[in-house]
Specification:
Layout (H helix, E strand, L loop, with lengths): L1 H26 L8 H11 L2 H4 L4 H19 L14 H14 L6 H18 L7 H5 L10 H6 L25
Helix pairs in contact: 2-4, 2-6, 4-5, 4-6, 5-6
């Protein structure tokens, strides 16, 4: 009897452990597989002619590797946290890639490295691996946006802010509630 009770406890603990692991896996973002050869081809086609005239495929591959190294080393998070998306400065990657290029004896100009990073970021965005927002929109605080005034409500077809406050716009089933 004691053996049966012990087995039941082990099974219950195992179910909770497996359930927790499955829950963590479900909360993780979808995994994107990046094909190195496809990334090199995409970036080579996206780069300006002056950059492709001086960089070989091997140098391009090494620069892409350094950019991925920066992403993984500083901004990769296997578990999604409550803090939201990761935000970084535009030149952080360039500074890192230039520093690592010097260490690995990869002779590339800052302008060419910046163009490669931009092309690689575009590729990763197309693949769905990263999401790039317009920095102006990201930095704008919603609290600073203007409220709708009476003229804006008229343009939306809501009607007079005082006289028609209890009347829904045509085709709308829900009345608009206003304070005051």
């Amino acid at each position: 009897m004691l053996l049966l009770l012990a087995a039941a406890v082990v099974v219950v603990i195992a179910f909770f452990a497996v359930g927790d692991a499955v829950g963590k896996t479900e909360r993780m973002p979808g995994q994107i597989v990046v094909d190195v050869h496809e990334a090199i081809e995409f970036c080579a086609e996206a780069l300006p002619g002056e950059v492709t005239a001086t960089l070989s495929y091997d140098e391009l591959r090494r620069l892409l590797r350094l950019h991925l190294e920066w992403i993984q080393a500083y901004h990769w998070a296997p578990e999604v946290g409550e803090s939201g998306p990761i935000v970084f400065e535009q030149f952080d990657a360039l500074d890192y890639v230039m520093e690592r290029a010097a260490v690995t004896r990869l002779d590339v100009s800052r302008e060419h490295a910046a163009a490669v990073i931009q092309a690689h970021s575009d590729y990763l965005a197309v693949m769905g691996a990263i999401h790039l927002d317009d920095p102006v929109k990201v930095e704008q605080d919603l609290g600073e946006l203007p409220l709708l005034d009476d003229s804006s409500l008229d343009q939306l077809g809501v009607g007079d802010a005082v006289g028609d406050a209890d009347q829904p716009p045509p085709g709308d089933d829900l009345p608009i509630e206003r304070d005051g």
